[in-house]
Design brief:
two-stranded parallel sheet; 2 strands; 126 residues; 4 helices; globular; mainly alpha
């Protein structure tokens, strides 16, 4: 699980890759000093993530055509990630959808998750 510690370049980052063609089952390696999650054929998507994905659809956060995107957000929430970084502006990083994802997360007992673009996560500090 992603830690509750402050997010830095080496801590608190969950990377979740859910290819559409394999959205039902995907390696969960832990890199030294980093918390990255990649689904592989060895680890099935948690049932909790599928239930949360269904809740997003039931609450009209996204439609049936965005099931893989809903599963991406649900997996991050279920795994305890604090931030999800994506270039998907249509179904994930969308100013109207982010509060809806988080409302359903709260309703289902999960923490809110920050959803941002990669550019928002780049620091200008040295």
């Amino acid at each position: 699980m992603c830690p509750a510690a402050p997010i830095t370049p080496d801590r608190g980052v969950c990377e979740i890759a859910l290819p559409v063609e394999h959205a039902g089952a995907h390696p969960v390696p832990r890199l030294a000093g980093r918390h990255r999650v990649r689904w592989t054929e060895t680890n099935a998507v948690p049932a909790e993530a599928v239930l949360l994905q269904e809740a997003y659809l039931e609450h009209n956060v996204v439609g049936p055509g965005a099931m893989a995107d809903a599963l991406h957000v649900a997996s991050a929430a279920v795994l305890g990630c604090r931030v999800l970084v994506s270039w998907n502006f249509k179904h994930i990083v969308h100013f109207q959808k982010i509060p809806l994802y988080n409302a359903v997360n709260k309703l289902k007992g999960y923490a809110e998750i920050g959803i941002h673009t990669p550019l928002e996560m780049i620091s200008d500090e040295n």
